[in-house]
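sry for the spam today, last one i promise. struct tokens for design, 150 residues
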């Protein structure tokens, strides 16, 4: 019994100590967003050209695995790291915005959602895609927000 508990606890400690690179080599591809470690902060700052303090970087940056590689994303006001909304059908917020602002040239992200790939506008109270502003990668994430950590 004691040996079984020791093995289980030892396995948990080992899993927590695994680096992001080791995790991705083991998993291959996983869409699960995982927090970065403090050891990753300098590489993340270099990759994104930022100077985030460790706590801020850890709180705003995640990694996922794609083809055994570590991909990182740092969130911002309009930079969601989750899967993108690729629908060309207006969501409820966009529909309501266009009802309230029938000829608006621009629908703000507060109405469209921050994960939309499109810039929206209103014509006669009807929502229309004005243009595509981002692209999805093979897994459905906004390609422009994710970078490969070497």
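last one done:
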């Amino acid at each position: 019994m004691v040996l079984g508990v020791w093995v289980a606890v030892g396995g948990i400690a080992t899993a927590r100590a695994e680096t992001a690179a080791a995790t991705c080599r083991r998993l291959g591809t996983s869409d699960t967003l995982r927090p970065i470690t403090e050891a990753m902060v300098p590489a993340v700052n270099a990759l994104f050209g930022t100077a985030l303090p460790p706590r801020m970087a850890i709180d705003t940056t995640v990694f996922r695995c794609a083809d055994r590689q570590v991909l990182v994303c740092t969130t911002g006001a309009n930079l969601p790291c989750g899967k993108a909304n690729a629908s060309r059908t207006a969501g409820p917020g966009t529909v309501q915005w266009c009802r309230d602002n029938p000829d608006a040239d621009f629908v703000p992200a507060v109405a469209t959602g921050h994960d939309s790939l499109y810039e929206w506008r209103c014509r006669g109270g009807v929502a229309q895609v004005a243009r595509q502003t981002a692209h999805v990668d093979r897994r459905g994430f906004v390609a422009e927000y994710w970078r490969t950590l070497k």
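The beta strands are 30-35, 61-66, 69-74, 118-123, 126-132, 147-149. ok im logging off now
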